[in-house]
Amino acid sequence: MRLLLVEDDEMIAEPVLDSMRREGYAIDWAQDGRAAELSLGNGVYDLVLLDLGLPRKDGIEVLNAYRSQGGEASVIILTARDAVDDRIRGLDAGADDYLVKPFDLNELAARVRALSRRRTGQKQPVYTHGELTLDPAAHEVTKSGVPVPLVPREFTLLQVLIEAPARVFTKAELEDKLYGWGEEVGSNTIEVHVHSLRRKIGAEQIVTVRGVGYRLKRCE
């Protein structure tokens, strides 16, 4: 899941960004309606956290335009506008859920997970590769039927690899999948994640293609 937060208030945005990153999501931040439209035009997002009272273009206008252009990402509206009419306008414009500020970050995370399960349940299968099985909807990994506990970014890394097991992913591609704009990524961060994941699923499961990147081992 790659998320886009559209919020002009830094005091609200920073805790949301930190919370979503702790949950293991790559999340980008747009601070006004025009920037949101440019970001959404890339078509890379699975879920959008959208404020309504934005500079340069109102959130409802952004949402209307996005849906009219075929945008399919789930949308949670985050706003101080708590009038019923405003909620109805947001939902009619194509929002999937609604939270009124101030909101609890744990509740926001739960709603993001719920929409993620809904999306993955509709669009993604359970992935099996050799001894490994990854279930995106249940957020579970097993090896030979035994559960493997992974932290969120390890899970995301394995999901990226298992979705295209024959493909070699470069370090830059993996960084883009695991991290959002502006997040500080150390030079050996991906290597650390790969090392940690190998300890849990078996070192032989992830192959290093020297000078290129990483892929899953080939099944016999």
TrEMBL record:
Its main location: cytoplasm. Gene3D superfamilies: 3.40.50.2300, 6.10.250.690, Winged helix-like DNA-binding domain superfamily/Winged helix DNA-binding domain (1.10.10.10). Residues 124-218 form the OmpR/PhoB-type domain. Residues 124-218 bind DNA. Keywords: Cytoplasm, DNA-binding, Phosphoprotein, Transcription, Transcription regulation, Two-component regulatory system. It is found in: Cytoplasm. The keyword Transmembrane does not apply. Residues 2-116 form the Response regulatory domain. The modification 4-aspartylphosphate is found at residue 51. Pfam families: Response_reg (PF00072), Trans_reg_C (PF00486). This is Response regulator. The lineage of its organism: Bacteria, Pseudomonadati, Pseudomonadota, Betaproteobacteria, Burkholderiales.
